[in-house]
Amino acid sequence: MTEVSRPHERPRRLRATPALRRLVAQTRLHPAELVLPMFVRDGITAPQPIGSMPGVLQHTPRSLVEAAREAVDAGIGGIMVFGVPRDEDKDPVGSCGLSADGVLNRALGSLRDALGDDTVLMSDLCLDEFTDHGHCGVLDDHGRVDNDATLEVYARMAVAQAAAGAHVVGPSGMMDGQVRVVREALDGAGHQDTSVLAYTAKYASACYGPFREAVASTLTGDRATYQQDPANRTESLRELRLDLAEGADMVMVKPALPYLDVLSDVAAATDVPVAAYQVSGEYAMIEAAAAQGWLDRDRMVLETLTSIRRAGARAVLTYYAVHAARLLEG
Ligand code: PBG
Hints:
By secondary structure, the chain is α/β, with parallel strands linked by helices. 38% of the residues lie in helices and 16% in strands. It has a single domain (30-328), classed as TIM Barrel, CATH 3.20.20. A hairpin with a 7-residue loop joins strand 2 (48-49) and strand 3 (57-59). Helix 2 (61-73) crosses helix 3 (103-115), helix 3 (103-115) runs parallel beside helix 4 and helix 4 (147-164) packs across helix 5 (178-188). The chain is globular. It binds ligand PBG.
């Protein structure tokens, strides 16, 4: 046999048994860091499946509360609620997102009544589910998304959601200045204790495809004039600087897996909690491959969530929140 030199260091020693690996694991997943996004749809009498998101449902107002209670009992850290109004309730300015009897605000009220402070109740603060054109803001006379006119609507929407019972509002529309107007509106209405989870780095991503089905989106075209270009990295640090100056309590990077570099940059640059959103398309990719038998679903779930945490996320929004919590509890 040829003489080969023997290694001076042996990293494999610490991988030798499950107990050793457990001892030295640098990143741990815990259900309390996982946030479940949930959909509530007006005008349906039974929960509806979402074709491109197997296992995820559009809930009725009643089934939403039951499923949320189950999720909280599974130990997850919070829920993020999206509302899907009836088609006939959509209009150019998204009025039904503002009114107290709109589907999302009613749902927030019943969730807060049922769950109190047992969980962190978060609401999506955006117009796309409520507008007939499907954009995240209101349009000007030329059909362009009007930043400053949208801010006025977001301010009112924030107050409506806080009044309905949200602990945290999540402005996700990528309008410039949105965090400031939301913070000021909340403070002005006596909601000083309602937190703002800023969608700080939100990219114009193909990974939102299944979500558009989930919220019955009417959008034609894209959101490239307001969401970030996937080509850009340092732009996220600019968005971070602005959101922090405007009063964000927590910041988010979205999508997660294709943007771990951005997540790592953001986490290194701030002392506020950083969240990441494993979005609908990330979920759909795992589900589709697992359904073919091409990937092991449970291992993919834990590996992707661990990677997102390792890159710097304190909390992860994921459609797998309850499933992962159950896996973690063994
Ligand atoms: C906007 C919003 C979107 C998502 C969360 N908030 C859609 C979009 O920006 O087009 C996507 C979430 C997902 O894909 O899971 N209200």
